[in-house]
Automatic annotation (TrEMBL):
Residues 2-147 form the Phosphotyrosine protein phosphatase I domain. The keyword Hydrolase applies. Keywords: Hydrolase, Protein phosphatase. Belongs to the low molecular weight phosphotyrosine protein phosphatase family. It is an enzyme of class 3 (hydrolase). It comes from the Bacteria. Its EC number is 3.1.3.48. It catalyses: O-phospho-L-tyrosyl-[protein] + H2O = L-tyrosyl-[protein] + phosphate. This is protein-tyrosine-phosphatase.
Length: 154
């Protein structure tokens, strides 16, 4: 089983969107049992809060199943538990390094690098553009799944 943890600042917009999009993609391909997929924050600002209403609207519109959840902050034990820790932006990567004391096993990735792009996924908390964020996350999840299928021969 491959364990994937998506990371953003507050764990209410981008990382849960990526979590549910990736779960949907793996389910549609009959691969859900080969993955554990979750999300977490680098900050403590939104702890306990459910997903943002804008994220919820996008998931509903796209017909992607989701469930109520509570934002949580990444922990040091998550580093051992997950194979891939995927950050939405460079600030998240810096915060991961600070919070977890580095990345000795090379588990940290910038999300869109799997799609061949070296840019951040904009935070819709600030931009208000949940559609743009969804398009980037869908692109990133599709590329990530393709990478994992090839890399791990699933």
């Amino acid at each position: 089983m491959l364990d994937i943890l998506f990371i953003c600042h507050g764990n209410i917009c981008r990382s849960p969107l990526a979590e549910f999009v990736m779960k949907d993609l793996t389910e549609r391909q009959g691969l859900a049992g080969k993955f554990q997929i979750a999300s977490a924050a680098t900050s403590r600002e939104e702890l306990g809060n459910d997903i943002h209403p804008g994220t919820r609207r996008v998931l509903e519109r796209e017909g992607i199943p989701f469930s109520s959840r509570q934002a949580r902050q990444i922990t040091k034990s998550d580093y051992e538990a997950y194979d891939y820790i995927i950050a939405m932006d460079r600030a998240n990567l810096r915060n991961l390094e600070r919070l977890l004391g580095g990345d000795p096993e090379g588990k940290f990735f910038l999300f869109l690098e799997f799609a061949g792009e070296h840019r951040d996924i904009a935070d819709p908390w600030y931009t208000g553009n949940f559609d743009e964020t969804y398009r980037d996350i869908k692109q990133g999840c599709t590329a990530l799944l393709e990478f994992l299928l090839q890399q791990h021969k699933l």
